[in-house]
Amino acid sequence: MNLGDVRRALYGILAACTLCAVPAFAATAQQDAARQAELQAERAAVQAQAQQQRQACLQRFLVNDCLHAAQQHERAALAPIDAELQAIARRERLRAAEAELRRVQANEAAARASRPDAVQAQRDRQAREAALLLRQRQAAQRAQQAATASPQPAATPPAVSPAAPPAAADRLQRRQAAVQQAEAERAQRAAQAAKEQAAYAARQKAYEARQAERARQAAQQHPAPALPVPSPSAALPLR
Fold it and tell me: Is the Cα torsion angle 169, 175, 178, 182 positive or negative in sign?
């Protein structure tokens, strides 16, 4: 899983929590914590009152009917409290997902700022090689033009061996050979640069995979808080 997959997973969590959140999503973490404490106190009070009602039912003639009514009253009183507690828990999970997304984005920005711009360096190197090749070709053309425009002597040139080429032609051949060698070296450097760029891309991909794995492990280490466990008295069997 790369960094893009982690971002998409976090966006999915944010979207799901946003759809299931209550309209009071603007509440801060401090407000939710205070409200959660109030709801827990209300829940404990309802359960205590229900326990008192069940104890009073034991003194009546129709015990089962009284216990059933007390249980129904307790469930009705706890339903809105539990619903609001679950909404607070969803908002807490949403805030945790947003914090994790900001952390991943900050790590990504820091990684981009710390690594060199390999693409720009490759372009600069190719521009320098192209300029060098252009100067070499221009030098070869000037030498060829100078050899062609040189005046011929009026006197009969001395006899030379047929196997010996003219000096100007020899110089031209040497320059052409030098140009060909320079082009071969440039092609070799370009191949080496492409190889280096591919290696850099592979290292970058591995780095992003490691970052994504760290983000996934961090998300797993911060699970959502568990919902409040109902009191065992809520499941008291009827007699």
Answer: negative
Q: How remote is the C-alpha of 196 from its chain's centroid?
A: 24
Backbone angles phi, psi at 59, to 5 degrees: -90, -5
Determine the Cα–Cα distance for residues 10 and 101; give it in Å rounded to an integer.
6
3-state SS, one letter per residue, for 171-227: HHHHHHHHHHHHHHHHHHHHHHHHHHHHHHHHHHHHHHHHHHHHHHHHHHCCCCCCC
**Residue 96 token pair:** 């945790």
C-beta neighbour count of 91 within 10 angstroms = 22
Closest to 4 in 3D by CA, of 184, 222, 208: 208
**97-113 pLDDT, tens digit each:** 999 999 998 988 888 77
Closest listed residue to residue 74, CA positions, set 91, 93, 92, 49: 49
Q: For the residues of 50-112, what is the DSSP string, one character each?
A: HHHHHHHHTTSS-HHHHHHHHHHHHHHHHHHHHHHHHHHHHHHHHHHHHHHHHHHHHHHHHHH
Give 140-183 pLDDT, tens digit per residue: 888 888 877 755 554 455 554 444 456 777 888 888 888 888 88
The model carries a pTM of: 0.38
